[in-house]
Amino acid sequence: MECFQLSLSIAKTSGRKNCEGAAYFNLGCVYDDLGDLQKAFELTQLSVSIAEKTGNKDSKRIANNNLASIFFRFGDVIKAEECAKSSIKLCEEMRDLLPGKDEWKINFRNERDDSYTLLRRIQSQQGRTLEALFTAEAGRAQALMDLMESRYCVRESVRPSSEQQMELIMTISGLVSSPMIFVAEDQKLVSLWLLLKGQQCHFIQKEISVDLKSLIRETYQKIGVNFDVRGKDRSGDEPEDEESVALKTLHDVVIAPFSHLIKSDEIIIVPDRSSFLIPYVALVDQNSRYLSETMRIRLAPSLRSLRLLAECPEDSHSTSGALLVGNPWVETVRIKGSKFKPLPGAEKEVQMIGQILNIQPLTGRNATKIKF
């Protein structure tokens, strides 16, 4: 506490407003951690006021997001939502200024995910589940949507009205015949929406013992993904006890809540962050069957990308065949300073699939990203 107060005193003396605003914000966070919401609120407001005067959008965004959290815990959901929306608006304004580099946009979005998550939490707690779904959707795959929109020369409204949101969601579910499960993560809470053609959206929240990322990591360890299992032939094997429990747990979190409503042999899943790493095909249901035994599984980065693909002219993309990509050139990729090593046998595997389908796969340098 004394260090933050000293930092504030120095910032005031120096006359550097940005430093003063940051000091107020940091001190507000300390009081928030101590449970003094009123003092945290007062200091964070001062931080917002200084950010407005200096024109520092990112500082204002962060402070507004903290104000939204404080208002939410005060029980003032109206002001909490106003602050959260203001934070998202500032985030999108800053993002629009970024050059057309996908990696910059992706990193920018990942570091500012908290604003979308908080607004979604506020809306879902009030029972406004469709609005919460649209808020979660609005932050998904933004760099990909920029690329697709430039490719197909379309641009959608960033913040449509509630009526337009509902119409958009229903349009998407009507264009794609397969059931869709939309996943959103929030610490130990997983939110799930099920979209069925011609039906109302179904919503459920599940609280789990640990965050989803930790649960997935634990599952990977139990099924041996992080260990050398190349010499073991698992084809035709039944899941082992420990593995079965782990895979059933993930199935219970993401698939089981809607199993009684899904009558199709195909399902589309729109994952969120770590849930992209869930081994969906290997999930095990209560009858000890792998999910891939009962249905085809497709993953999509966002609902809007599905809609764009469904609505684009037929001659804009291939309606037959397959695209096979394996063992891309990753010579420039570094993980903690070390070169990224390609997966053993990845190129051999994709070549074998290519022979079966009579398709030439893209490998090595030919498997790099193509810019339109």
Automatic annotation (TrEMBL):
Family annotation (Pfam families): CHAT, TPR_8
Keywords: TPR repeat
InterPro entries with a match to the protein in the record: CHAT_dom, TPR-like_helical_dom_sf, TPR_rpt
Domain CHAT intervals: 246-369
Coiled-coil stretches: none
SUPFAM superfamilies recorded: TPR-like
TPR repeats: 21-54
UniProt keyword Iron-sulfur, yes or no: no
Cross-referenced Gene3D superfamilies: Tetratricopeptide repeat domain (1.25.40.10)
PROSITE patterns, per the entry: TPR
UniProt keyword Signal, yes or no: no
Listed name of the protein: CHAT domain-containing protein
